[in-house]
Amino acid sequence: MTAGRILTEAAARLAAAGVEEPGLNAQWLLADALGMPRLRLLAEPDTQVLPAARRKFEKGLLLKEQGLPLAYILGWQDFRGLRIKVDGRVLVPRPETEELAGLAADFLRGRKGPLSALDYGSGSGAIGLWLASELPALKVTGVEKSARAVKCACENALDLGLAERVRFVKGASLSARSEPFDAIVSNPPYIPTRVIPGLAPEVLSEPRVALDGGGDGLDVARMLVRLAPSRLRKGGALLLELGEDQAGGLLAAMPAALWRDKRTHKDLRGVERFVFARKK
Ligand code: GLN
């Protein structure tokens, strides 16, 4: 059978299973099974798909029909050009988090000398690893509550050749063991607990600890706001990603006596999603 025909049928199957973006998911799965870039697959719909590739594709398609995140099936997620290995141990990095990392890099680029950053709730390690790959003078500490996620992040650091400047430790607070940081960056769990049961199956197969932010979703974010001043250098920045309708309220609760340049940033969809503030 040709790739084009397989894609049409698979997209219909995924749509019937209620999968969002069925066409795109089918393309990624088939490209992966064929070991071919997705765009080439689109340009060459007459490509013959041999039985081995067909079987691999069929396996992925079944998992996708059952609501597994595409990135778990492929085993990786692109994060600003870095290939981050992901599986059920970690949250799949989202496009919004690529924006958060971009904001952090913009801030850090404006500072001189050796730089250090803390990636709190580092998950797969995407934020910290990308920052380190972007800024040669930067050292990153990733702190993560889940031991399984720490393991995944360490594997990513080794795969990407960044293990010398990026280390991941298991923990749930901002330990005071190291020097203060130039930036604390975090995409904390921020979904209110009661919202979680209604999420899409893809999201529900991700680690709950990466999603559940407590009653109003802001438990971890508030902890970071409270402790960050003691862990930041003067002029250092706290950068957070939050959910819809959360950033403004959190920012307002950050005391002017401790913080300056307080602002929120919109994501590409226009949602006030990011909090930025510098320690006075
Ligand atoms: N820092 C990781 C990411 O942004 C994981 C975040 C989390 O587990 N909440 O993808």
Mean pLDDT: 96
Q: What strand line-up does the widest sheet have? A: 5-4-3-6-7-9-8
| Computed CA radius of gyration, to the nearest angstrom | 20 Å
Runs in which pLDDT lies below 50 for 5 or more consecutive residues are: none
Q: What share of the residues lie within helices? A: 40-55%
Gross morphology is: elongated
CATH hierarchy: architecture of the largest domain: 3-Layer(aba) Sandwich
Highest-level CATH class of the largest domain: Alpha Beta
Q: What is the CATH homologous superfamily assignment of the largest domain?
A: Vaccinia Virus protein VP39
Q: Main β-sheet, in a few words?
A: 7 strands, mixed
What small molecules are bound in this structure? glutamine
> What is the ordering of alpha helices and beta strands?
HHHHHEEHEHEHEEHHEHEE
Q: Count the strands?
A: 9
Quick synopsis:
The protein is built from eleven helices and nine strands. By secondary structure, it is α/β, with parallel strands linked by helices.
What this model shows, in words?
The chain has 280 residues and is an alpha/beta fold. It folds into 2 domains: 3-66; 76-279, 3-Layer(aba) Sandwich (Rossmann fold), CATH 3.40.50.150. The protein is built from 11 helices and 9 strands. It has helices at 3-16, 22-34, 38-43, 51-65, 70-74, 95-109, 126-134, 147-159, 201-204, 219-231, 247-252; strands at residues 76-79, 82-85, 115-120, 138-144, 166-170, 181-186, 232-241, 259-266, 272-279. The strands form 2 sheets. A 7-stranded mixed sheet has the order 5-4-3-6-7-9-8, with helices on both faces. Strands 1-2 form a two-stranded antiparallel ribbon. Helix 7 links the parallel strand 3 and strand 4. Helix 1 packs across helix 2, helix 2 runs antiparallel to helix 4 (51-65) and helix 6 (95-109) packs parallel to helix 7 (126-134). The longest helix has 15 residues, at 51-65. It is elongated, with a radius of gyration of 20 Å. The model has no long low-confidence stretch (mean pLDDT 96). Bound molecules: glutamine. Glutamine (GLN) binds next to helix 7.
